[in-house]
Amino acid sequence: MTMPSISQSARRRLRVLVLTHQPYTVAANTETLSEAEFAPLKTEHHVIAALESLGHEVRVLAGVMQLTQVRDVVTKWKPHVAFNLLEEFEGEGMYVPYVLGYLELMRVPFTGCNPAGLLVADSKQLMKKVLRYHRVPAPDFALFPLGHSVRRPRRLNFPLIVKSATAHGSAGISQASLVTSDEKLNERVAFVHERVQTDALAEQYIEGRELYAGVLGNIRLDTFPVWEMVWKNPAEGAPRIATEKVKWDTSYQQKRGIDTGAAQNLDEAIGRHIARLCKKIYRILGLSGYARMDFRLAGDGRLFLLEPNPNPDLARDEDFATSAASVGIAYEQLVQRIVNLGVRYFGGRPAARRGQ
Questions:
Q1: The dihedral of CA 49, 8, 104, 169: what is its sign?
Q2: How far apart are CA 314 and CA 311, in angstroms?
Q3: How far out from the chain centre does Cα 248 lie?
Q4: What's the CA gap between 133 and 158, in Å, rounded?
Q5: Is residue 75 part of a domain?
Q6: What is the pLDDT of residues 315-341, one digit of tens each?
Q7: 204, 219, 247 - which closes a domain
């Protein structure tokens, strides 16, 4: 199949196919939705509105569950680029890289991270092993496979955070995820195995500030100012961790005064160190497009990578976009740059290296 040639021009009107696992309808009157109803559709709504305001022709393939859906629309409509907003495929986040690989086989460029980088970053155990080899500071950890008994390595000391080894978005993480005994460790690993249905990962809990930094680019990388999650009214004695409720429950966020914004009173040297470390991690893992790096800054000044997040939430009011806006990158401009990066990175290699 011959696909249309792609201009490098940032403002050329493109046919953009938006891929989402959400049952999203473009024509939906979002003004009639409550905040809770609108929240799951917010990113799609913001991105589509931005693409249309940029003059692109947009078509949405929502609720993607089969590759034949992708094949049919690509064959008939011949999009210049696919805007990837998939968080899962057939109910599994780990299958998204395979959809992107299918797009590569069909010679369709797409936004965000390439399949290989996404596979490595999404496998928390593999990602941590790769970064440990490169001496990237990260909490010590142990993997507890689904269906296996729990045996804590002697080197792994309490307190520990127990989470899914593959699920993202803080799935299954609550205050009970922070454990201080083998009994509680066994209980929480069993919870992850039974409720989340994945392997469990236990990693050292790092008390400190939770910091985020955005990265944009393929070969040449830009980093955004460091952002921080803050609790203005935390529950007494509760650890400040990004639980599932903290991330997605708007009423809980309001109750506890949870917000993110530019990190205050952060030493400039630490900010520069974070920027360098972000670029190093991005290149080690072979990421492309855009990502957000999550860190913990301990009280003694040590910095630990918690997770790299390829394709973070792109809603207008989320961390990645707001941190970009703080340095003068308007939301529509950010979306256009992500489209441009997707166009230029194709088939696993940046187009610049192929003379395109």
A1: negative
A2: 8
A3: 14
A4: 24
A5: yes
A6: 999 999 999 999 999 999 999 999 999
A7: 204
Ordered DSSP codes for 265-285: T--HHHHHHHHHHHHHHHHHT
97-104 average pLDDT score: 95
Cβ atoms of 133 and 150 within 8 Å: the answer is no
Owner of token pair 């993997």 = 143
Q: What is the CATH number of the domain that holds 177?
A: 3.30.1490
The band of 172, judged by pLDDT with boundaries at 50, 70 and 90, is confident
Q: Find out whether 344 and 350 touch, Cβ atoms under 8 Å.
A: yes
Considering the domain boundaries, does residue 8 fall inside one?
no
Q: How far is CA 252 from CA 161, 228, 245, in A?
A: 21, 18, 7
DSSP annotation of 10 reads T
**Helix ranges restricted to H, 244-352:** 244-248, 250-256, 268-284, 319-325, 331-344
Residues whose CB falls within 8 Å of the CB of residue 330, separated by 6 or more in sequence, listed in order: none
Where does the pLDDT of residue 349 fall: very low under 50, low under 70, confident under 90, or very high at 90 and above?
A: low
Residue 39 has a pLDDT of 72
For residues 28 and 215, the model is more confident at 215
Is the pLDDT at 9 greater than 50? The verdict is: no
Identify the domain containing residue 62 by its residue range. Answer: 15-112+340-354
CA distances, 157 to each of 70, 116, 139, 180, 206 (Å): 47, 33, 11, 9, 12
- Give the pTM: 0.89
Residues 100 and 52 occupy one common structural domain: yes
How does 116-138 read in b/e, with b if 16+ C-beta sit within 10 Å?
A: bbbbbbbbbeebbebbeeeebeb
**Lookup result for tokens 């003694």:** 300
Place of tokens 């609550």: 174
128 Rama sector, left if φ>0, alpha if ψ -120 to 50, beta otherwise: alpha
